[in-house]
Every structure is written in structure tokens, then in C-alpha cells.
């Protein structure tokens, strides 16, 4: 039995279209809001440089948590509209989720630093991830809002 939940950070269960849209709008607003705030302007008001570094780390961590929450919402949405489909469809959707959503996040946050020693590969992967996978992820996350579940 598949239970529906509205948690921001849970990979269990499913999520309805309405809750998916609401959660994604909240997460996008938080991420964009954090991106538009220029924390460098607060540096003169913070007496210790270490505290400014902690502030920047906490903002980066908050953005990462928002991104992981968005991935969990997308995963539960895929689980919702895949419930009544065949086993092969469910497996293919999980593969698509890993390739379109998980790989760019892993690449940008982790793998890019390992490929830094090979500039040719990093240029190809940067171009592929930024020009193909990220736009595809945005388009797919919008389409997931309109696909009807069971």
C-alpha cells in the first residue's frame, strides 16, 4: 500500500499534484530568495571573519537541503503517477530520475572536483549537464505536475 504524505524531506509514499505544486513553489521561492540575498554586504557588520565564513557555510548548507527536499518531492511525484503502471515503467522512471535529477546534483556538488584534473572531460560534462540535463530536469519537473496519478 502506498501512503501519500506531504513532508518536505521524505522519500516514502507518494504526493498528489496539488501538494507537489505547493511544495515545489515553496522550495523554489526559498532557493531563489537565498540566491538573491547578497551576504557579502553583511561582512562589515560581522566583527569576526570566522563568523562570516560560518554564515556563508550555513547558507550553502540551507540551499543544499532545499535541493534535496526538491528531489524528494519529485521522487514521490514519480512514485505517485507510476503506481498503476507496469514494473518496467517504474524501473525506467527510477532510472530517468537518477540520470536527470540525481546525476547533475552529484556532479555539481561532488564529482566535478574529482574530474578537475582532466580539463577536457570537465568541459564536456559541464556543457552536457548545464545545457542538457538541467533544462531537461526543469521541464520534467513541470510536466510531473500535470501527469495524473491513480
Write the layout of secondary structure elements.
Elements: H1 17-36, H2 49-82, H3 87-114, H4 119-146
Helix pairs in contact: 1-2, 2-3, 3-4
The low-pLDDT segments are none
DSSP summary: helix tally: 4
- Share of residues in strands: under 5%
Question: Which secondary-structure class do the elements indicate?
Answer: mainly alpha
Rounded average pLDDT: 87
- SSE order, as H and E? HHHH
**Number of DSSP strands?**
0
Structure notes:
It contains 4 helices and no strands. It is an all-alpha fold and 150 residues long. It is globular. The protein starts with 16 loop residues before the first helix and ends with a helix.
Summarize the entry for a quick read.
Helices cover 73% and strands 0% of the residues. The chain is mainly alpha-helical and 150 residues long. The longest helix is centred in the middle third of the chain and has 34 residues.
List keywords for this structure.
150 residues, mainly alpha, single chain, 4 helices
